[in-house]
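Hey all, quick one. A colleague (J.T.) asked me to put the adenosine-5'-diphosphate job into the tracker so the inputs and the structure tokens live in one place instead of scattered across chat threads. No bug as far as I know, just bookkeeping. Sequence used:
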Amino acid sequence: MPEEVLAIDSVGKSFGGRAVLKAASIWARPGRITTLMGRNGSGKTTMLRIAVGELRSETGIVRFLGNAYERPRLPVLARRGLYYLEERARLPTTFPIGAQLGCLRKRFGAPTFNEVIARLELEPHLQQRFDELSGGEGRRAALAAALIRRPTCLLADEPFYGIAPKDQRLIGSALRELAAAGTAIIATGHEVEALLSISDEVVWCVAGTTHSLGGPDAARSHREFVREYLGWHLLSPN
Ligand code: ADP
């Protein structure tokens, strides 16, 4: 298995005396998508925000490309190839998205620019501004801005949340394509089928800690995970 690019290792975090994370860990490996699943409020976003230095953990450490950070800082990590795609990521509304993505193409050289636009079906929207797009179109445009940069590691928070199945499919296949080009990806959420369909490895965040369930097939046969997310009817009698 390829070595980890990013590790969020045994982080703990409390808010107002309430422990949200106790010893939670996840890692990202080149060419693989690790999904972090868990209910709303289980601490998934908190883990990512700790990784990029938006929140400070009380315990644990973040390692990125061989360096250990007690206090990671996003500008430093971003210069080394980390991209944090927030759930509510927005693009500026002053220029059409085609102009913005074109600027990124100039800056990053993006040889795959046309593929990114085609894969995310953004051609019809290039003349529109971000605030003229639907939720799913906006999510695709924000992801395109990440893909053009060809990050070493992408943290995608809730990429499937609240969007139509078609948008989920386009985003899922773009994430798989990015992983195929070598990027290490962590994607969070609770849209279990959509996430399992892109996962190489599933990490379950529950009760403040994390459990690595293995690949999607192993997750589908993990009794507690199935009971929580997929329904009793899929459990075998033993
Ligand atoms: P998830 O991403 O799994 O939905 P979050 O990481 O956003 O969960 O939140 C985990 C818990 O921590 C929630 O109960 C949330 O209300 C709380 N929380 C998150 N950020 C803060 C904050 N800045 N101040 C206080 N509580 C917070």
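Adding what we noticed when we looked at it: Residues 223 and 238 are 10 Å apart (CA to CA). The chain has a mean pLDDT of 93.
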